[in-house]
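Q: Hi! First time doing this. I have a protein sequence and I read that you can turn it into a structure. Is that right? Here it is:
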Amino acid sequence: MPNQQPPLSPTHTRILLVRHGQIQANVDKKWHGWTDSSLTETGKKQAQRAGQHLKQQHPQASAIYCSPLERTRHTAQAIGDAFNMSIQVVEGLKEYGIGVWEGEPFNKLKDQYNFFEKLIEDRHFAPEGGESIHQVSERTSQSIAQLAENHVGETIIAVSHGAAMALILANLLHQDPYEWGRYYFENTGVTELHLGPDAKLHDFNCTKHLEGM
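A: Yes, that's right. Below is the predicted 3D structure, encoded as structure tokens:
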């Protein structure tokens, strides 16, 4: 039986944000923004468990959305299989792309390229071929707001990425993309956001479905 859920206002949409399942870059601590990556075997199992969990807890979910990247599409498909529901791709939900620095280890981005320092100094800074934190914050927040507007009073699932979802919460809850450091998501962690005239966070990074893995 589903757990007792927080009541949903008729003016809001319940959005279940789900980070994709594990990819090798997560294990290796490398930045894969727009780089396409397959789920690991662990990632596939996480996605299946997430689907079963969401179907049990939120059988009323009416739509499943995901970013265009393979890791989110395959995670969303596993969830869709649990619901016997098709998935819909939304370009605006894709990860923070960093161009020529894609695939670099996080410690190298920090210590050698000063990436995080540069983006704090200038929200419009973007590596060659990549995006700025401002662009990603605007893109992701607008996309999730549009989905909320399309599904007022309903529950939907949106499968996205760690940095993208952190920026969604930072923008919607704090009106400041630099608050993204508050939010770290485990692979297939589930976060419940109620979005309407205001934004309310009801559950963050739930990983009950991963117990025993």
